[in-house]
TrEMBL record:
Any single GO BP term: regulation of cell shape
Coiled-coil blocks: 67-104
Superkingdom of the organism of origin: Bacteria
Function according to Swiss-Prot or TrEMBL: Involved in formation and maintenance of cell shape.
Occurrences of domain Rod shape-determining protein MreC beta-barrel core (ranges): 119-268
Annotated source species: Streptococcus equi subsp. ruminatorum
The entry's keywords: Cell shape, Coiled coil
Protein name per its UniProtKB record: Cell shape-determining protein MreC
Amino acid sequence: MKKLNLSRLFFLLTSLALLVLTLVLLFRVAVSPYLSMIIRNPVTKMDAIMSKPFAVIKEGAKELDGLMSAFSENKHLKKELRSYKLEQLQVDKLKSENRELKELLGLNYGTDNQFAVRIISRNPYSWNKSLVIDSGKREIKEKSLVTSELGLIGRVTTASQSSAHVELLTSGKNIDLPIKIVDKDKVIYGNLKAFKSESKTMVASEFNSNESISLDAKVYTSGLDGETVADIPIGKVTGFKNAADKLKRHIFIKLYADTDNLDYVLVVGKE
C-alpha cells in the first residue's frame, strides 16, 4: 500500500513539473513578447517625455556656451578695433603735423631769421586771442611776426629763453601793423587795425591814397615800420567804407589763415 502511494505521489509530482514547464514555455513563446511590448511602449514614451527637458536644457547650455564664446570674441575684437582706431588717429595726427611742418619750412620770406616752432600752450578761454610757442635755443625777438602755412596769424609780444607769447590778429586788439594792398598794377599803403568778430574780418585804415581797389585784392605786410618783414600774405579785400579823408577810409580784409587747428607756426623776424 505504501509503495502504491509513493508511485502515485511521484506520478503527480512529475505531471505537475511537466505542466509547470509547459506553462513556462507557453508564456515565454506566446505571452512574454506581448507583455514585454505592452510594458515597453509606455516606458519608452515616458523615457522620451522625461528626456526631452534634459535635451532642451543641454541644447540651451550649448547655445549659452556659444553665446558666451561669441561675446568674449566680440569684446576682444572691439578692444582690438579701439586700439587700431587710436593708432590710426595717432598716425593721422603725425602725418598732419609733418605736412604742416614741411609746408612751413618751405616758406621763404627773404630773411635768415625765420624758423618753425611748436605751440606749447593755448587756453580755451583765450583761444582766438593768444598762444604760447616754444623758444627752444633760438632767440625770439618781440614784434616778430608769426605765420601759419597760409599767412600771418599774429605777432610776438613778450619772449623769454624758453617760450614766447603771441598775440593773434583775431584778438580784437588794435594791431597797428603796416600793410600794402596790391591790386594788379596798383599798390596802396595803410595800417592793419583790429579784428571784427561780427563780420570775421580785419579792418585796415590810414591809407596813403583814396585810389579805388577791387574786391579780392591781395593784402601783405609792407615792412615800412622798419621792425617787421615785408611781403607776408595776410588776406584779401572783401569790402570798403570810403571817406573823403583817405586816413579815415576803411577796407575790410578776410584773413587767409585759420588759427583754430595749429600745431606749428613760423616765426619771422628782422635780421
